[in-house]
Specification:
disordered N terminus; globular; alpha+beta; 5-stranded mixed sheet; 193 residues; 12% strand
């Protein structure tokens, strides 16, 4: 009886360790409650509902050079073979990382928050605060320096096949988006960058 009990306890310990090490692929990414208090309220952020591409596109072959996408900023599509590092978590406008590399991050399940040249400086600072508050390695903020986004919505959240466009930065909106869409539909979800 003692051997059976030890065997059962051993199996339970192994299952717990496997669960901790590998995690649940479908578990939402956790974000801190404090993030929800940063920036505008969801209503004041004036965000459009999340637009989702169905069926979710699969990862295309890698390309080189400057790419154009039918939707700006892209939430999927062709991209470079190299990902964009997520450290730093916030990229300054003058750094201007290639968006083609950020799209590769999307393929790995990373949420990319894009901001255009028209986002006011005070909102950029709030965006920096949000980037600092998100504890997950599944999030990065990237400038879009090619043109202003449409409809006066200067900050856009994207995950593979999902987009939400906002006029202002809202920690609550960001937290909900990251929790819902990070690693959700990406062809290579969970892959490191």
């Amino acid at each position: 009886m003692k051997k059976v009990l030890l065997a059962v306890v051993g199996v339970v310990v192994v299952l717990v360790v496997v669960g901790v090490v590998f995690g649940d692929d479908d578990a939402p990414v956790e974000v801190p409650v404090e993030l929800t208090t940063v920036g505008a309220t969801p209503a004041a952020a004036d965000c459009l509902p999340v637009a989702s591409t169905r069926p979710v596109p699969q990862g295309p072959p890698h390309r080189t050079g400057t790419l154009d996408w039918p939707v700006v900023p892209p939430d999927s599509g062709e991209h470079h073979a190299q990902t964009l590092r997520i450290t730093p978590r916030f990229y300054e406008r003058d750094v201007d990382p290639p968006p083609e590399r950020a799209v590769h991050d999307l393929e790995h399940g990373i949420v990319v928050a894009w901001y255009d040249r028209e986002l006011p400086g005070d909102e950029v600072e709030v965006l920096r605060q949000v980037a600092d508050a998100v504890p997950t390695n599944r999030f990065v903020v990237v400038p879009w320096n090619r043109a202003a986004f449409a409809d006066g919505r200067h900050v856009v959240l994207t995950a593979w096949g999902h987009t939400q466009r906002c006029r202002r930065v809202s920690g609550q909106v960001f937290a909900d988006f990251v929790r819902t869409y990070a690693d959700k539909d990406a062809p290579e979800k969970g892959a490191p960058v």
